[in-house]
Amino acid sequence: MAKKPKKQQQSGGTPATVALTAAGVPFTVHSYDHDPAHPSYGEEAAEAMGVSPDRVFKTLVADVDGALTVAVVPVAGQLDLKGLAAAVGGKRAAMADPALAERTTGYVRGGISPLGQRKRLRTVLDDSVGLHETVCVSAGRRGLEVELSPADLAELTSAVLAPIGRA
User: Fold this and answer.
1) Fewer CB atoms < 10 Å away: N or C end of the chain?
2) Tens digits of per-residue pLDDT, 132-142?
3) Residues contacting 15, CB < 8 A, separation 6+
4) pLDDT at 38 over 90
């Protein structure tokens, strides 16, 4: 049985929460005890927070024609690499090397946030993000999520919205 997540407003902590605070964007931090044996970081987050996996979005880093690109899709589905490439005017997309993704973003795999990255990468949000009043994304470490409006997420990441997720 998953522990009940702790809800709190937070003004600092990770580069993601610092970026949100600096932008003056309303957000809520959800923390939970991460289980390293869980097969999916995103599904674990949804279960721990008691929210639909359609509202929890995972952050993936892909290589599109030689340029690292962030894809943010619901944890309930998968990334459509062809759709991602098309969304940024590229031809080919493949998942980025995990070590390169970690070095570039400043976050560890399973805790990569689309916010507050070391090097700002172009970002594409799955267009299903607009179906929700709020969504959750990683706050920058395993066991920590931020909940915010899709509009604020899109604005802070300068994201393109496109159909990049698939069931």
Assistant:
1) N
2) 999 999 999 98
3) 106, 107, 113, 115, 116, 117, 118, 140
4) no
